Amino acid sequence: MTLDLQTLSDRIAIEERLNFYAHFIDTRQFHRVAAEVFTEDADVDFAGLNVVGRAAIDSTLKGLTTGIIGTSHNISNVFIEVNGDDARMSCRIMAWHWFEKPGGDKLAPTDLLAVGGYQDRVRRTPEGWRIYHRRGLSFGTGIGIGAVPDDLRPIMEATLGRVADWPG
């Protein structure tokens, strides 16, 4: 497979958008996620949680991050297929979470390691590449270490056993 320079440039820009998603969350810049990663009409499908539009994504993300003192989203196995101004992307993710605990040790071992992935549809916009559809996946149990807090449980349970349908 040969890639022309435009396709290669697009793939780099698309993967950078994926990395910005993780970076903004891990650096607690939640206010940047919806506007700089997703399209205005984006939909996020985590099975137990479905939201549509930047405002809903922003509000939901702020609610889900309450009580979290740190995260580390580690992305790998990124596949991207560009087709003009549209693309699809698939990746794996290990998301480490540390939760606020009264009097707790802030240097304690991780409270939760969620193991899964994303399948995204991405569109070229005047602002650059943005995700317009995200589908969350879980691999195995979806949980590597720790216990799932009540507000994340519906997402983890709903994506349990949901596997990637691309690439084949």
Description:
With 168 residues, this protein is α+β, with helices and mostly antiparallel strands. The chain has one domain (5-159): Nuclear Transport Factor 2, Chain: A (Roll), CATH 3.10.450. It contains four helices and six strands. It has helices at residues 5-26, 30-37, 54-64, 153-159; strands at residues 38-45, 50-52, 68-83, 86-99, 112-125, 128-146. It has a six-stranded mixed β-sheet. The longest helix is centred in the N-terminal third of the chain and has 22 residues, at 5-26. It is globular. The two termini are 17 Å apart.
Q: Strand share of the residues?
A: 35-45%
Biggest β-sheet, characterized?
A: 6 strands, mixed
User: How is the largest sheet built, in terms of strand order?
Assistant: 2-1-6-5-4-3
Total helical segments:
4
Total beta strand runs? 6
SSE run: HHEEHEEEEH
Span of the ends, CA to CA: 17 Å
Q: The CATH topology is what? A: Nuclear Transport Factor 2, Chain: A
> From the helix content, strand content and strand pairing, which structural class follows?
alpha+beta
Q: What is the molecular shape?
A: globular
Please state the second-level CATH architecture: Roll
How much helicity do the residues have?
Answer: 25-40%
**CATH class descriptor name:** Alpha Beta
- Give the uncertain stretches in residue-range form: none
| Oligomeric state of this protein | single chain
Rg calc? 16 Å
Overall tally of domains: 1
